[in-house]
Design brief:
Two copies of one chain form a homodimer. The first copy, chain A, is of the alpha+beta class. Chain A has helices spanning 7-17, 71-78, 90-97, 122-134, 140-159, 162-174, 188-191, 196-206, 222-233, 287-299, 305-313, 346-363, 367-385, 388-400, 405-409, 411-415, 420-430; strands spanning 30-33, 39-44, 50-57, 101-106, 111-118, 212-218, 255-263, 270-278, 317-325, 331-340, 436-443. Helices cover 42% and strands 18% of the residues of chain A. In chain A, the strands form two sheets. Chain A has a six-stranded mixed β-sheet, with helices on both faces. A five-stranded mixed β-sheet of chain A has the order 7-11-8-10-9, with helices on both faces. In chain A, a hairpin with a 5-residue loop joins strand 9 and strand 10 (331-340).
Chain lengths: 463, 463
Amino acid sequence: MTARISGLILAWFITFAVAVPARALDIDVSEFKLENGLHVIVVPDHRAPIVTHMVWYKVGAADEPKGKAGIAHFLEHLMFKGTAKYPGGAFSHLVRINGGSENAFTTQDYTVYHQRITKERLDLVMELESDRMQNLILTDANVLPELLVVLEERRERIDNNPSSLLGEQITAAMYTAHPYGKPIIGWMSEVLKLTRQDAVDFYRAHYEPANAILLVTGDVTATEVKALATKHYGGLKNLAAPKPRERTAEPQPIAERRVILKDQRVASPFWQRSYLAPAEAKAEGRDALALQVFADIIGSGPRSRLYRKLVIEQKIASQVGTWYSGDGLDYGSFGFYASPNQDVDVAAVEEAIDAVIVEVLKNGVTQDELEMTRNRVIAETVYLLDNQEALARTIGAAIATGQSVKDVLEWDRNIARVTVQDVAKAAQAVLEEENSVTGLLLPAGNARGGADLQPAALDGVQN
Amino acid sequence: MTARISGLILAWFITFAVAVPARALDIDVSEFKLENGLHVIVVPDHRAPIVTHMVWYKVGAADEPKGKAGIAHFLEHLMFKGTAKYPGGAFSHLVRINGGSENAFTTQDYTVYHQRITKERLDLVMELESDRMQNLILTDANVLPELLVVLEERRERIDNNPSSLLGEQITAAMYTAHPYGKPIIGWMSEVLKLTRQDAVDFYRAHYEPANAILLVTGDVTATEVKALATKHYGGLKNLAAPKPRERTAEPQPIAERRVILKDQRVASPFWQRSYLAPAEAKAEGRDALALQVFADIIGSGPRSRLYRKLVIEQKIASQVGTWYSGDGLDYGSFGFYASPNQDVDVAAVEEAIDAVIVEVLKNGVTQDELEMTRNRVIAETVYLLDNQEALARTIGAAIATGQSVKDVLEWDRNIARVTVQDVAKAAQAVLEEENSVTGLLLPAGNARGGADLQPAALDGVQN
């Protein structure tokens, strides 16, 4: 459906949201499994009579069969095509007339369907979502036209956005073997050949209770959710054999890479660098937490090292920043970006950033920086906990990539344990030049006004 | 078998051999099919009582299933493990005691087994080769230890050779979607998980007469070959359904890429650039021939433009050269390489090469250069026709990638038709910076003597 926000964009949001998990003291999360294996998580939030209902399938673009790039995302679109009980657009119509909103998104690792609605209607959305977990009806007539919608989605969200194109090129250069190098939306040459049968096969292989997480956040109790979940999802069977995820290990990177994209729509240069980094779920010890802290210290906000150096002191960049994206199942990324000021050579900006990196790798961060960052991150958490949907996504992403609810709930306690030594160790391991892909977005001849640059918009494509 | 020369190295040879097809007037090639679909090609060469017997299976590394990287090459190794009739090393033993030599190689597009032996023994090698087309016996005991042989092969041929590593990185950066970006030998994380069943499945799916080419060169007639081929191969059945090759189209390149590899074993820098180019079999009009001519004019030998400019005039490089590799099924590459003289910055060499490229793209090549090149290429053909094995490979590679015997036989006539306009058009289409990956091999700290650099050694990995 064109009206839905694509996972390609949401992934960017998640990149930042992952830094903001629940605080142990505030939330009484419940977790249980139905007999058919459906993993249920309940996150009470009684401030308003609203619920967010999400189903996370543990399958994404990185799990697609050879030659079927884009099938995970395409199936996400097709899940709105109706069942015998709720044909055509009945699902969306019922959600809408009951005052709810709904959406879906696809990442490399999971595919998520969610609704936000008044608490009395949780019964309704469970009825609808459980129905389409196994009763989706796909016909050539409702499948094939959707390929054009995907094509248009790619044009709008990627091809029309030079920084998205740069992100896609950086990601492709980053991964030589692991499927994260393949865009979530797929290679168009393969997408346009996808068939009804491909979608049915993927649906049958992966959409079943034992491969899903039901996450309900909002004004409900675990007891209420358990009763409703059992009523709607409890009767579903697992029809396909469970499959291990087949992911090629990325070989140890050995060469620094660079991607130079010239585009007529770009008015001024943009610089970006990604380093291959561990995923939170697979990082050793406190490495992932340390990278989050390090990203904050070196490049987040006007008191960060990069901002002070490049924007305030040297006045060579209008913006500079960093991210750590670790919510993928297998790998994450640590990134830098900057926009040079007018008439400043992009090479000078890169050099200045490298100087800051070299300095911090040599001398480490300070205890003061560490504490400021901890406090800021924890304070931001409070603010972001107000966002029921962001909270649900953070917990869902963690669980779907192999972390436990405990990992999430103890996040603030764990981040408080990060030391300057942890930060130095984690940063040194990641910020090796052979782990990096540097991307330059440059104006091509015939520039006709700048496109809006979204820093690192697509680096999070692997999330 | 460790004693056999690997396809990874032979591919490099083929890169150059493909420029040297048969000349129409000298060779009376016969071509026919057996009833089971086996495509037979006979190339008489009566100068010595020797034959070269080759079986080309139209399957290679680019046809491997997801998660089974390296299975094509691994199966090539396993084809020497024996059958019920000729168990263990009987095949190789029989060839050897009959005075023959044998080998095999795997490319992205085909897998080839070949023997060179006295003409009286053609009967014997056909008996052996047809037997293992369908009767190979694989057991865990003979399969699993061979994985360590592949691992060692990778170490020897790639990991121990910095320029091979550079070539692998360039190829990985060149292809974002098409399987040519995957090394023929496979990703080690997948290779080490390959099983007996994987090998059996790949063998059953692809090794059969309708998917093979039998090529016999040497002191035989078509009539003799037909009789022997019918005797040995005629009774074989096609057991698997024919499968179309599943190859993702590479998206139109949009960004120049660079790969910088620093290695302690490198004493002095090496520079290389590959452009994505059309394959001969898929090039339009005379584009592939024109690229061959262009490669010769701009960078082959001491009278080429690059050599004169960089080595003789400017004295900044000790070697400089080009290649066009077009014998893949889907894509080829056009490449440049150079070794800077001592104390010359590699960037200066790149700049000088770029200046030559810009000049030739602007002003084209001359009629004189064109004629010198044509004459040299045709003269070299005569010399190389002496090499029965190279000739067989050239014809086999052409047929296996969809060209006809006629294309091969009329090569010298076709190359004589190439005009300066053809060269300009083909070169301009390929030498766009967004089609390119530039690789730098630089000494890392602690240099301890230089490894021998084989220019572009692995760029031909896709052949």
